[in-house]
Each structure stands twice: as C-alpha cells, then as structure tokens.
Amino acid sequence: RARYQVRIMHVVAFAAIVCGQLGILYVGIFSAAPLIVGLGLYFFCRTESLRTALAVYLFAALSHAAEAVLVIMNLFDDPGFARARDDLPFTAQLAGQVTIQMGYAFCFWFARLSRQTSLRAIEQLQKATRVAAQRDVQLAELRQDLDRAMKVGGPGRFTGHSVGTWTLGNVLGRGAMGEVYEATSGTAEGAVKMLRRELLSDPSHVERFFREVRVAGSLESPHVVRVLQASTLEDPIPFLAMERLRGVTLGDLVRQGPVTGPRLRSLVEQVGGMLDRARQAGIVHRDLKPHNLFLTEDGMWKVLDFGVALLGDSSGTLTRGAVIGTPTYMAPEQARGEPVDHRADVYALGAVIYRCLTGRVPFVARDTPALLYAVVHAMPLRPSTIAPITPYEEICLAIAMAKDKRDRFETTAVLAAAFAKAWRGVVDDDVMRRARNVLRQKPWAEPEPAAPNAA
To answer: Any catalytic annotation for residue 235?
Structure first.
C-alpha cells in the first residue's frame, strides 16, 4: 500500500486501451474484439476519480469511433482477419458501431454503479461492525455495573458505625480498594470511603489509600471531590469523608452512545484544566478513565480516585515499577512499567476523548497481555472510519495519543486548547506538522475489509 500510486494505475489504464485498439485492428473493427475493451472499461472505470473514469471511457469510445468512421466512409480498409463483408450495407455498419458505443457506455455506467453499490455495502458492513464492537464493550461494562449494582444500595459491613463525626448508612459503591457509604454528620450529607478490612495488613494498600487522602486534600479545585474529613494514623480503619455527589459518571454516559457536542467540550475544558493544575502541583493522576470522571447535576465535571496518583515527592515505593492503571486508557510508557510524567495524563485524556467521539475503546484484545502489547506498539482504528469525526479532531487525537510522549501535547491544557480550535474548524500549522510526523511514524490502523478496488 505504501508503494501504491493511483497515477501509475491511470497510465496502465490508458496503455491497456491502446493495446485493446491494436487488438481490434488485428481482429476486425466490427468483430467481437471490442468486448474485451468493454471489460477493461468496467475494471478501470471503478476508480475513485470520476474525471479519470470519464477520460478512460471517452478515450476508448472515441478511438473505436474514429477507426469505424474511417472504415465506414471507405477511407480506410479494415485490416482485421475477421472483417465485415465488403457488401455490408451502410446502415448495418452504422448500427454495429452504435451497438458497440452503447456497450461501452453501459460498461462505464455499470462500473460506476457497481462502485457505489460496493461502497454502500462496505459502509453498511463497517457500520454493523462498529455497532457490534460498541455493543461488546457496552455489554462488558453492563456486566461490571451489574456486579456492582448487586453489591450496592443495601447495608454494608460498616453501616450504622461512626467514623470521625460521620454516621454511615447504606453502601453507595464498592471497588477493589474499599467501599463508599452514604453518611451524615448532623444535617450535612457526605460520602465516606472506607478501606476494606482485609487490605489493612498490606502496607501498599494502606499507603495508596492515604495517598488519595493527601492528593484530594491538596488540590483546591471545583473539579476535584471536596474532602470534608480524613482519618488520622490513630483511627483503627482509614476513611475519607467527601462531598456527596449526585449525577452520573462518564462511563454511564458512553455506555448509552458517543458523547459529543457541548458536553464533551465542557469535559475536555474542565478536566484538561484540572489535570494541568495537578501537574503544576507535581501530581500525575495515572488512572484517568470514564468511570473516574463524574458529571454532577449542575453540569460540573469532577475527577475521582487519586489512589494511584504519582506525587512529585514520591519515592516510587508504592508501585515498585509495576504497571499501574487501566490498560485501555494507559499511556505506552506506563504500560511498559517505565517512569511517567504528566504526559501520561495527556494520553489518557486523548483516549477518553477517542472513546467519547467514537463510542468504542481505543483497543480491544483477547487478554491483558495482548491489550498491553497493542497499547505499546499499535495505533487505534482511524477515528473517522468509526464515527463522523472531522479531520481537525482526528489530527488532535493523533498528537494526544502519540506513542512517544515527546510527540504529544505538552500539557492537558494545551490539548484542551487545540481541541477547542478543532471544534471551530481551525488547526495551527504547528499542530498539523506534528500530526503528520506522528502518523508518518505510526499511522492509524485501518478497518477490515479494505476499501474496494480503486484502480
């Protein structure tokens, strides 16, 4: 495909017509030989360029018409070995030429019709493939949500207990690290996250929990869950009391279909700005994904779960070089277990935008090792082949999801600014140049089946 050039195929097309005309002269002007040229017309006129297809058709039709006129007007003897009888009436010769011209015109029309039919069929197949892929992702997420739903809404292990100044109610949610309870303190409502009792003996899990406490408490931003109270080392079980959020996660929204328009623009602007503020504080989230982005009822986006965040003063003893995060939205260097910086969040936000625009995750694999391999070595499917995405949005996604972190946007704020321009139909020259460089090194994956014959 890299060596394929449409211009070469055009040269082959015209050369084939010339050879066909020589064959017609060898066999006979009014013989069946012109049918071979008709087959060539059907093949070459399926090209993407209507202008080229028309030129090939006219070249073949006019060439044969010129030869036939010379023979019919007795200005040139048919040199073929299967030429027409000398006493063939003028009207019969004219009718034969008209029939051949109609055949050429039919081959041209049928070629263009076949191309359109093929394109529609492939478009329908790709659409069905996209829908099936989206439904597979949605089904997997629904299973996860069902598992969570069967575990929430009722009393939990700590229901009725008091931690700090909070009295715990029913379970709002459960995760790998702990449980979140609805809670009250006087007339105030909140949500209290409790570390699971069986994890208390693992120092790394305890450190991860307190890390979330420190990060959430250090970031003064309306886009981070407000911390109301946190446990101390004297408390028997670590807890974190936060403001009670009402709304939906981005994971809930993308399960219903692509998230676009003003809602996506506000997400990129608010989350991009918040992550840049975290960068300035020396914090890398490292686990940005739809289920960690929450849309409140008043339209405010909040970033959740800083349990695996990288702190500027961290010694790295928490992860010990292990792969931390969610593979689907993980930056390549993070998937390799290498040290990461804020550009890992740039990649993750780009992957989240990809999911919102296309309705599907960037990579799908049979198991986690295969998924990590794809994250490190492959590019996702070209977004515009999955959903109606503008070239400007696709350019920004290419930079945001570049394999080399040096090729990505410098910060999430720069990414947000670039997407704001892309949605207005504007792309800076520097952004265009960077995208070309990224795609030259690692182009988008293309869907199968491939495009129809474009000769």
So the answer is: no
